[in-house]
Amino acid sequence: MLYVVGIGAGSREGMTVAARNAIERSELIVGYTKYVELVKAVFPDKEYASTGMKQERERVEFALKEAADKIVSLVCSGDPQLYGMAGLAYELSVNYPDTEIEVVAGVTAAFSGGAVLGSPLTHDFAVISLSDLLTPAEKIKKCLECAADGDMVIVLYNPSSKSRADYLQKACDIVLRYRSGDTVCGYVKNIGRDGQESRVLTLSELRDTSVDMFTTVYIGSSETKVIGGKMVTPRGYRNV
């Protein structure tokens, strides 16, 4: 049995009951090194196996192989469907027909971070990763243009890294073709973890802000506003 588990932000409070139950039932926990460390802090007595960045295929293959004769949890941050391992687990499962897979949903950073900022995702929104390791840069650019033109709130995952220090700036420049520099934006670093930090700011300010891979960025729509210091996108009820 292989559970593909979304652990949310990784803290005990951020995990769903279903996620905790799946991990409790498991004999082995497999995941990316950072996420395994987070789970180990909550479940210190479990057996663990971890791999580093860019070793996703090897990680999933190992989890599937081990799940042939034991209960295994393959842990992912947030939700395992959104930039997680759920899809890859199903793709590779054709080689392990006797292994049952169950996906256990988790709270993705878009929502847990949005709650920190207020309520930026009350209306239509798009989630876009700025990482071009698996997605061509031109496709990311097109997604940004379409979301900006559609006046949706945009949530950016993987907004920056050492090798992509200017990607957030480039993304903001694309959105600025469609939206005012005064557009309400926000970001949250280390959501639900030690060192959590958040800020509400304008799109122009966001363009010149330094962030990292553990930051989730929110670019508001034309309707997004600041209420009581919080970032809020109205639902659009016409009679309110």
Number of domains: 2
Number of strands: 13
- The sequence of SSEs as H and E is EHEHEHEHEHEEHEHEEHEEE
Biggest sheet: strands side by side, in what order? 3-2-4-1-5
Query: Could you estimate the helical fraction of the residues in percent?
Result: 25-40%
Distance from first to last alpha carbon: 49 Å
* Chain oligomer state: single chain
Q: Could you please say which CATH topology of the largest domain applies here?
A: Methyltransferase, Cobalt-precorrin-4 Transmethylase, Domain 2
For the record, the CATH class of the largest domain is Alpha Beta
Main pleated sheet: 5 strands, parallel
Overall mean confidence score, pLDDT: 94
CATH architecture assignment of the largest domain: 2-Layer Sandwich
Name of the CATH superfamily of the largest domain: Tetrapyrrole methylase, C-terminal domain
- The percent range for strand residues is 15-25%
Report Rg: 19 Å
What are the low-pLDDT stretches, counting only 5+ consecutive residues below 50? Answer: none
Shape: elongated
